[in-house]
Amino acid sequence: MIYTRRATFTPDTFDAAAMTIDATISTFAPVTRRDARGPYTERLDRAGLDLSGLVGSPVLDGHRQGSARDVIGAVVAHRMEGGSLVATIRLSSAADAAPIITRIQEGTVRGVSIGYRVTRWADSVDPITKARVRTAAAWAISEVSAVPIPADAGATFRSQTMPENLIENPAAPTPAENRAAIRTIARSAGMTTQQADDMVDRDLTTMEARAEAFEAMQTRARQNATHPHRGHP
Q1: Are strands 58-61 and 71-81 parallel, antiparallel or unpaired?
Q2: For the segment 89-121, what is each residue's pLDDT rounded down to a tens digit?
Q3: What is the pTM of this model?
Q4: pLDDT at 165
Q5: Do the Cβ atoms of 157 and 13 come closer than 8 Å?
Q6: How far apart are CA 55 and CA 155, in angstroms?
Q7: CA within 20 to 30 Å of 224's CA: 74, 96, 111, 129, which one?
Q8: CA distances from 27 to 54, 81, 111, 183, 224 (A)
Q9: In angstroms, rounded to a whole number, what is the distance separating the alpha carbons of residues 26 and 47?
């Protein structure tokens, strides 16, 4: 089965002479998916990514694979930067690819999506939320596509003027959504209202809140092990 994740273009790195453009094709951010058992969080293990076949992988128009005309370029290089996977893409100069190349160059089409195959999954449960987690422990990217709507907003066609650590994520939660998520995490971890308020006041991200909540659970477990509750005889 082929899975896909989407991102966005920033066309400033387009080199008209070489017909190349850089794209952050994956930030390895978790996404929510659904299968026959219901919703789950999918995570991509960086260490499990097989990059041996990425150079030469096709760049497609909207994941279409029915014709050679659907191939609008190829990956010619890749590198890891700041925890994200960056690819250099050489775009086709063929006449039938010109319309989509023009849209990429002008920024009308900003979306990027990777297609990938998973050969080994690792199943677990989030210790805080108790949600089901499936981690792609062994996987490989089979293609990169230009698409109209991004999902992994941190994977972008890169801007030469964009700081490496300030890639904008338009899908980020609102402050109200972040506060609500932190309070849910705190309740699931058995933390007090005061502890939840403290995390909100410190403007933690949900990832930071999960880490702090997990540490609180671990601390409580160690204390219970050291000072077990003894009932009255």
Answers
A1: antiparallel
A2: 999 999 999 998 888 887 777 778 888 999 999
A3: 0.63
A4: 36
A5: yes
A6: 18
A7: 129
A8: 16, 10, 14, 26, 39
A9: 14
